[in-house]
Write a structure and sequence with these properties.
Layout: E1 2-3, E2 10-11, H1 67-83, H2 85-94, H3 101-126, H4 131-156
Antiparallel strand pairs: 1-2
Helix pairs in contact: 1-2, 1-3, 1-4, 2-3, 3-4
């Protein structure tokens, strides 16, 4: 009978491994290995990245105007979108000496909307003999009315954003 060098269990003479602890018997007894737990490799600390700048729309011109200029001309900008052509005339007459960039921006936006409405109206009148031309023209005019309302709301929020659809038109730029 053999004895296990590791756990001292009794084994058969022809045993190659200890049935109790699994130690190989043919090899010389090995000293106990100092097993250390797995440790994560140390990573170098990198400084946190600077926060990314917020994406700014190329159609948002809010930052181009000072708060004072916006405050002084807000009523006239609201009148432009609320009264359409008459609002443009009022704004031009009331602030002609001021030469405000904020007011010029909103006058230009409303002029583009008005010219687009006139073109759509003329096209709808020419195509009024077809039902589809009249319906499409009325739909576009309704859409442009919604765009004016959105512009009015943006002025209320002190925003100067080029209106949807009109921003794609290149005249008056």
């Amino acid at each position: 009978m053999k004895t296990c060098p590791q756990c001292h269990a009794s084994l058969a003479d022809d045993a190659a491994f200890c049935t109790n602890c699994g130690t190989p018997l043919n090899a010389a007894p090995q000293p106990e290995q100092n097993i250390q737990p797995y440790q994560q490799p140390v990573q170098q600390q990198t400084p946190p990245a600077a926060p990314a700048a917020p994406a700014v729309s190329p159609y948002d011109h809010t930052d181009e105007f000072s708060e004072e200029e916006v405050h002084d001309n807000k009523i006239f900008a609201l009148a432009i979108y609320a009264l359409s052509f008459i609002g443009i005339i009022i704004a031009l007459l009331a602030k002609s000496s001021d030469n405000s960039a904020y007011l010029r921006f909103h006058i230009k936006q409303m002029l583009m909307i008005l010219i687009t409405e006139i073109l759509v109206g003329v096209a709808a009148a020419v195509l009024s003999w077809t039902c589809i031309g009249l319906i499409a023209g009325c739909g576009l005019l309704a859409f442009l009315g919604v765009v004016e309302i959105i512009c009015f709301i943006n002025v209320c929020r002190n925003k100067s954003i080029e209106p949807l659809l009109v921003r794609k038109l290149t005249f008056l730029k």
